[in-house]
Design goal:
- By secondary structure, the chain is of the alpha+beta class.
- It folds into two domains: 33 residues, no CATH class; 138 residues, no CATH class.
- 30% of the residues lie in helices and 23% in strands.
- The radius of gyration is 20 Å and the shape is globular.
- The chain starts with 15 loop residues before the first helix and ends with a helix.
- The relative contact order is 0.09.
Length: 191
């Protein structure tokens, strides 16, 4: 059981094992609920709030192209969880149900045999069931979330990205499939 002391300002540091278990990070929203059990001990239940937004792939419909294809990004719910780290979110998608494969690449091998880790993980999406245009759009949505999560942030303002060298930015942009995504990401780094 983890413990923490209350400061004179009414603040508590949540123990690391609890933060790790709930996958709490900076700016996570936590919910505190009073446990109304009729017993002598007073209890509060701490949970991480799930932050959802309308699925950008299906625009909240749960399906794509007038119902022709089920949206695998939101599992047909019309919402995506933006509070969960993107790699974990991808791993939790029921992709077999939709006959879609998403591979994540977090490290590569150099010509000299040395393995190195990628600053920003890469993804590949494959399916014989969905059209290439739709897979490209989905790839870009997921890769843009990876960029937001993994690209180095400014030391002075953590809501801004560090400005990479042009060649590094070109490598990032080159991995995107659609022109709209390329323009958007370029604006993130070159406002």
């Amino acid at each position: 059981m983890a413990k923490a002391k209350l400061t004179s300002k009414g603040q508590v540091t949540i123990p690391k094992e609890i933060r790790d278990y709930l996958r709490i990070s900076e700016n996570s929203t936590l919910k505190f609920e009073i446990d109304d059990m009729e017993n002598e001990s007073r209890s509060v239940i701490l949970t991480k709030e799930v932050v959802k937004e309308k699925c950008p792939v299906c625009k909240g419909d749960g399906s794509i192209q007038n119902g022709t294809f089920a949206c695998f990004v939101c599992a047909e719910t019309g919402e995506v969880d933006v509070g969960t780290p993107i790699l974990l979110y991808i791993y939790q998608l029921p992709l077999r149900k939709y006959e879609v494969a998403i591979s994540t690449i977090q490290h590569k091998k150099r010509s000299d045999g040395q393995i190195y880790f990628l600053q920003i993980p890469e993804i590949e999406i494959n399916s014989d069931k969905y059209p290439k245009e739709l897979l490209d759009h989905t790839h870009d949505y997921l890769y843009m979330r990876l960029i937001k999560e993994y690209a180095p942030k400014s030391i002075n303002n953590s809501s801004l990205f560090m400005l990479p060298a042009d060649i590094v930015l070109e490598e990032i942009i080159h991995k995107l499939k659609t022109d709209d995504a390329k323009k958007t990401v370029t604006r993130w780094f070159r406002p």
